[in-house]
Write a structure and sequence with these properties.
41% helix; mainly alpha; 70 residues
Amino acid sequence: MSEAPSPQLREAYERSTTRLSRTFLAQVDGLKKYRAKAQQIVRVERVEVQDGGQAIVGDVSYRRGVHDEN
């Protein structure tokens, strides 16, 4: 970059490099979020249980164990 013919052109090169770097970092961050194994949350606001029905009230979680199929 030091071989730029004018200070204005050098400044333009630096701005372009900065923009490209920020774009690259944003894309890497987006890919990281996409690939991350995020915990899914399902929230049920209203449940109706008819006569003879059953419902679980509270937190329900599931972890894969050794005996589970992939």
